[in-house]
Amino acid sequence: MATKEKAPTGAATNGNGNGTQASLNVLVQYVKDLSFESPGAPNSLRGRETAPAISINVNVNANPLSDKEFDVNLTLSAKASHEKDVLFNVELVYGGVFRIDGFPQEHMLPVLFIECPRLLFPFARQIIAEATRNGGFPPLMLDPIDFAQMFQQKIAEDQAKNKVQVS
Question: Do 81 and 53 form a contact (C-beta atoms < 8 A)?
Answer without folding.
Answer: yes
